[in-house]
Amino acid sequence: MHLHILGICGTFMGGLALIARAAGHRVTGCDAGVYPPMSTQLEEQGIGLIDGFDAGQIGLGADLYVVGNVVTRGNPLMEAVLDAGLPYTSGPQWLGEHVLGRRHVLAVAGTHGKTTTSSMLAHILAHAGREPSFLIGGVPLDLGVSARLGPAPAEGSRGLFVIEADEYDTAFFDKRSKFVHYRPRTAVLNNLEYDHADIFPDLAAIETQFHHLVRTIPASGRIVAPAADAALERVLARGCWSGLVRTGAGGEWQAGPVAADGSFAVLRGDAELGTVRWAHQGEHNRANALAALAAAEHVGVDARVGIEALSAFVGVRRRMELRGTVRGVAVYDDFAHHPTAIATTVAGLRERVGAARILAVLEPRSNTMKLGAMKAQLPDALQAADQVFCYGAREGRNALGWNPAEALAPLGERARAFDDLDTLVAEVARAARDGDHVLVMSNGGFGGVHERLLAALDGDAR
Fold it and tell me: Ranges for the Mur ligase central domain (predicted)?
């Protein structure tokens, strides 16, 4: 079958393209401004890409048009598909109907930590020799790609498929959350906060979508959830028909005291199962690890094997990824964009570097942040940083609808706002000194600011 994917360079749709190609389908796709790294990854797999959404693409004669949620009514190609009465579906629905049905799906949902926990889980299963399929919203450094289709399940058995289960809506014609299409047997619910202000009016609306997810998990399935999350408690109080395993303080799975090098013991009840020896810092990473271990156990992976795997876990691209060090200044890249994620990311780096200075460089560019729904939470989220540099474009699709200088005023002289990227880079380079840690946080490309900062720091050294 020939699939033509609209919005193919998004992380999910690009991963779906790789899965479909591996399943034997002919795959082509299009996007606005076809861009790397996904475009490069797709082209290497022999997937033809078209820049733009011109209506003439219906001339490709695809058997099915798979529509990403970046596509809206008024899109020229989508309008042509509708006018011609051609068959179309959403990415999540195609995946659920054509790939996931014969597999044991392990879905990782939650406001924060989905990509990292999915990566940990897939890494554990691979380390255990289970050859999992996976589709993750980032690139696990241990696995090398964001998506892979494992061997076809043997007759009468189910292969394993790890998927990052996003609560964002499915498509312009299907406003349910993506994850309701996945029908997992193992579900990790990491946490739940208000997000996606562009599609959800309040937290209660997101809780309803999570309730719908819980309704799809069979009685023989397992839900892994933290012991103390008020929103998830409300979700589960509306109905839970599956096994429930709790993690964290008060739960069945807990992390013991943290050593100076970041290692920690894993406890299940009163039993110590082993020690995760890694360099990753932050309570959030330990919570993600516990969830991954509990989920892997549900499909038969002994916790000691999982602990061994996590001790070798490298991480995920754009999750506290060190991009370089120049004249003693380390520059990191992180995907954090929600205030809670920003706070936990800064806290994790603080745990690692102690009293060294942290220079936080932030681009609030998610739809929620651009709307200003959480701007009041930013000062508290950034309290642990020594200096804050915030970039907010005044024009274009990423323009902020609010004044970052006003929002960050509670931080006083520690915080500065910029609407020109060159000026921001120059000021960060001027402020940085030997021993500092520059933490760049954005869910976009941020104008290549990491390379520009490293180049500016290198220029200052000459």
Answer: 108-296
